[in-house]
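anyone seen this seq b4? input:
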Amino acid sequence: LASKSRAEEMSQSLLAFFSWILTEINTLFQILLSPVKGSTHKERLESFYKLQARNYDNYRKRLLHGREALFEKINQLLSQNKKEKLVWVDMGALLHVISFLFTNV
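predicted toks r here
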């Protein structure tokens, strides 16, 4: 009975792993190869994100694995250099930055 339980655990682990791989492949396919449709900018954005939206946030978090550590370091610098005028330059994810700053400042 114990070996059956171990076999079930292995089976579930393999299933979870292959499910993860398929999700990653699907997200990459949607990002790189899926045709973008629409005549307006909004329609094209919705077309681009529609099929990858379910996994995109998790995928991006793993892709940008040092981002939260960077925000923590910036927070430390901001608290140390209150007299200096610092400039923040960001290439996207403004809401993530604001959310991070409000929860960590």
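DSSP finds five helices and no strands in the chain. The chain has a mean pLDDT of 79. kinda curious what u guys think
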